[in-house]
Amino acid sequence: MNKFITVLTVLIIAINGFSQNTGEIKWYTFEEALELNAQNPKLIFIDVYTEWCGWCKKMDAATFKEPYIAKYMNDKYYCVKLDAEGKEPINYMGKEYTNPNPDGRRSTHQIAALLLQNKMSYPSYVFMNEQSKVLTVVKGFITDDKFDPIIHWFGERAFLTQKFPDYSATFKSVKEKEIEN
């Protein structure tokens, strides 16, 4: 019965994600993304932010709002918004992670510290493979034109065979292709 409920939950989440064709990124919780990934493997993208971070808000208002970025992210990744100071426990790889001082000011959640290897900087973006293992962390506000080759490098699996500078030197974004035509 539990397996049926899990499969039904994943199916509902997936249908909800596919039906939202609004040009915005479909954000999942950390645990929803892991559950979906277990059923249908995909890369996972985690936006680690805080409520007080101005650059995080700028990333949300600019780069993440670009329709071509949102479409690609929704196609290739399960995208997660992770509040680095969140209060809710999170299960990952068989262990529960918590915020040791959830009512304290600027208290870091253990999962954020783990994912960012205790190098706390916001915003930070964690790229995970289909096995839910961290590939790398990218930090700071990034404009859409600089963000686009990064998400494609991972999304197209070019990171397996090519260094990023080589990939980005020949990368053409959707915007560049439109200008050429």
Task: Reconstruct the topology from this structure.
Layout: H1 2-19, E1 27-28, H2 30-39, E2 43-49, H3 54-61, H4 67-76, E3 77-83, E4 90-92, E5 95-97, H5 110-115, E6 124-128, E7 134-139, H6 144-155, H7 164-170, H8 174-180
Parallel strand pairs: 1-3, 2-3
Antiparallel strand pairs: 2-6, 4-5, 6-7
Helix pairs in contact: 1-2, 4-6
Question: What report would you give on this structure?
Answer:
The protein has 181 residues and is an alpha/beta fold. It has one domain: Glutaredoxin, CATH 3.40.30. It is 43% helix and 18% strand. The chain has 8 helices and 7 strands. It has a 5-stranded mixed sheet with strand order 1-3-2-6-7. Strand 6 and strand 7 form a beta hairpin. Helix 1 crosses helix 2 and helix 4 runs parallel beside helix 6. The radius of gyration is 17 Å and the shape is globular. It starts with a helix and ends with a helix.
pLDDT below 50 for ≥5 consecutive residues: which ranges?
4-21
What percent of the residues sit in helical stretches (DSSP H or I)? 40-55%
Tally of contiguous helical segments: 8
Please identify the top-level CATH class.
Answer: Alpha Beta
Q: What is the N-to-C order of secondary-structure elements (H for helix, E for strand)?
A: HEHEHHEEEHEEHHH
Q: What is the first-to-last residue Cα distance?
A: 54 Å
Q: What is the fold-level CATH name, i.e. the topology? A: Glutaredoxin
- The structure class reads alpha/beta
- Let me know the average pLDDT: 88
CATH level-four homologous superfamily name:
Glutaredoxin
Major sheet details = 5 strands, mixed
Count of the domains: 1
Global morphology: globular
Order of strands, widest sheet:
1-3-2-6-7
Report the count of strand segments.
7
CATH architecture: 3-Layer(aba) Sandwich
Strand percentage, roughly? 15-25%
Rg, nearest Å = 17 Å
